Amino acid sequence: MGCIMRYYEKQGLILKRGDHGEDVLELQRDLITLAYDIAEPPDGDYGPQTEGAVRFFQAIAKGHVTGIVETVVASALHAMALAPPATDAALDLPFVIGPHYDSRAEAAIDMIVIHYTGSGTLVGTVRWFQDPASRVSAHYLVGKDGSMVQMVQEAERAWHAGASQWQGRSNCNRFSVGIEIINWGLLEKKDDGFYCAIDNQYTQRYNGQTPVEIAGKYWEPYTDEQYVALSELVRDIRERRGIDLEMIVGHTDIAPDRKIDPGAHFDWARFRQSLLSLLV
Ligand SMILES: [Zn+2]
Fold this sequence. Notes:
Elements: H1 2-9, H2 22-33, H3 48-61, H4 71-82, E1 101-103, E2 111-116, H5 122-130, E3 140-142, E4 148-150, E5 156-158, E6 165-166, E7 169-170, E8 176-181, E9 186-190, E10 193-198, E11 201-205, E12 212-214, E13 217-219, H6 224-241, E14 248-250, H7 251-254, H8 268-277
Parallel strand pairs: 2-8, 2-14, 3-8
Antiparallel strand pairs: 1-5, 3-4, 6-7, 9-10, 9-13, 10-11, 12-13
Helix pairs in contact: 1-4, 6-8
The chain binds zinc ion.
């Protein structure tokens, strides 16, 4: 919600075709987050495609239809982010629908699975989860600044865990809520710096926070904001669903042969402590 709120607070902001710059870039990112198609990647130029997306948004949101982005539109963007389909969480989260889910076949929800995405941005990951080619999803995503998005209703089965097993039960997607934290995970150290994996190839230069070294391996650190947001989200899910603490697991716990996320750098003790402090 962070970026959308910033808009909302910018009183008097007016953008129109031909404008370019940071405000247009923010608008484009918001439109992408809200699943309105624009040129990829967002380029900060208010061209025909951005105008088309704004007009489409305004038509749906029943806001102004002038194509100009102003505070009325900003507030409509904000209102829409809060509008149905409502998020399951009591937290104020935007819901961005994705195509990759199906029925839980009546299985009761009693598990939460924590993942890292192996990617760099919330918006990029939302786009990937919306891509018909990806065949992956999660109920919730947690961005680096702590902003969160829901993409699948908890009542539906999201496709986050794949082949998995826990305490004699297989296909954990049936009975779990999946949470993806935006994080590159394992990094590779080369002579000129660190690299992150794209399709298992360490070809993309890493530009994030100083990596955490654990037993000779390097990881992108999770942010303080992510620990806070994750704790609040998990507390909310647990309260609503009555999920036991020991049923909050990492992807690697239920698919140890295939997966390492959320990684050695995920601080379970800190997360559990933070979770318990919220229960007071
Ligand atoms: Zn995973």
